[in-house]
């Protein structure tokens, strides 16, 4: 009888706790997941007409990072792809992150293309370290960071992350400073746009591409365009240059005031 009364009391207590929200066996923390969303070809083009245009001399727009896509046997893998680009980028400054292989050409400093022998296995390793597709489709931000940190630890280095998201947008000066100091920025985005720019004599065409789902990509450059007409400055467009992790477009511009930014972090290595 005492055992029955004790068991009944425990059930009552647990039921009360669950009812008032102090604890629930069904409650779990959920994070946004990123799953290598397709990037859809340009659906809209904007024409910007101007009498003059200025681009700062310090603009960095190409050649500053590796650009990879996926490999066979992995799916929803934007985390692993971005992670592989990050590892290959820092291999220039921190030797032996990719044992037996240099990610860049020593004579020019330019990054090599994706290697089936070295990059693809490393990408699969990151895919597993990030536990891709284990808790859900793709990876969460915390899974991405934990897996990438573990890779660096396994190779004798330490990786950490510093946020550069200020309110709902990017801290452009912090991004510039990081890039100027040979650091990458990782972007965690929800559905939105990236851009290409076609330049003509007195106008630019800005083509929009749709990121159709949640996606992770790296930023390695920056560009600020100022447009003038007869009355003076009428428009300023500020971008980060990104490697999309997709084959089309491989490189694109990402507006720093984009509304689809979930998180953005500098990757620090020591």
Short recap of the structure:
By secondary structure, the chain is an alpha+beta fold.
Word description of this protein:
With 270 residues, the chain is an alpha+beta fold. 24% of the residues lie in helices and 34% in strands. Strands 3, 5, 8, 11, 12, 13 and 14 form a 7-stranded antiparallel sheet that branches. The chain has a 3-stranded antiparallel sheet with strand order 2-10-9, with no helix packed on it. α2 packs across α3 and α3 packs across α4. The radius of gyration is 23 Å and the shape is globular.
Please tag this protein with its features.
24% helix, 270 residues, alpha+beta, globular
The low-confidence runs, each spanning 5 or more residues with pLDDT under 50, are 1-28
Alpha-carbon distance between the two ends: 64 Å
Can you write the helix and strand succession as a string? HEEEHHEHEEEHEEEEEEE
The total count of helices amounts to 5
Number of strands: 14
Main sheet: strands, sense, barrel: 7 strands, antiparallel
Question: How much is the average pLDDT?
Answer: 89
Radius of gyration: 23 Å
**Beta-strand content:** 25-35%
Shape: globular
| Class inferred from helices and paired strands | alpha+beta
Oligomer: single chain
Q: How much helix, percentage-wise, in residues?
A: 10-25%
């Amino acid at each position: 009888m005492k055992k029955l009364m004790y068991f009944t009391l425990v059930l009552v207590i647990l039921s009360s706790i669950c009812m008032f929200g102090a604890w629930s066996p069904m409650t779990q923390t959920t994070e946004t997941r990123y799953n290598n969303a397709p990037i859809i070809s340009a659906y809209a083009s904007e024409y910007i007409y101007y009498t003059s245009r200025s681009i700062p001399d310090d603009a960095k727009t190409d050649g500053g990072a590796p650009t990879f896509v996926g490999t066979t046997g992995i799916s929803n893998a934007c985390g692993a792809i971005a992670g592989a680009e990050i590892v290959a980028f820092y291999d220039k400054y921190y030797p032996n992150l990719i044992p037996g292989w240099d990610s860049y050409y020593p004579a020019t400093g330019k990054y090599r293309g994706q290697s089936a022998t070295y990059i693809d296995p490393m990408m699969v390793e990151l895919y597993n370290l990030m536990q891709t597709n284990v808790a859900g489709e793709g990876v969460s931000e915390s899974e991405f960071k934990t897996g990438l940190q573990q890779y660096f630890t396994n190779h004798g280095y330490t990786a950490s992350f510093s946020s550069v998201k200020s309110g709902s947008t990017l801290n452009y000066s912090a991004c510039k400073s990081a890039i100027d100091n040979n650091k990458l920025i990782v972007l965690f985005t929800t559905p939105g746009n990236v851009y290409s720019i076609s330049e003509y004599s007195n106008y630019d065409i800005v083509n929009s591409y749709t990121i159709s789902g949640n996606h992770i990509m790296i930023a390695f450059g920056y560009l600020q365009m100022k447009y003038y007409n007869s009355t003076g400055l009428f428009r300023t467009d500020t971008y980060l240059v990104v490697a999309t992790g997709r084959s089309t477009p491989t490189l694109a511009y990402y507006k720093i005031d984009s509304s689809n930014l979930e998180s953005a972090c500098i990757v620090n290595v020591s």
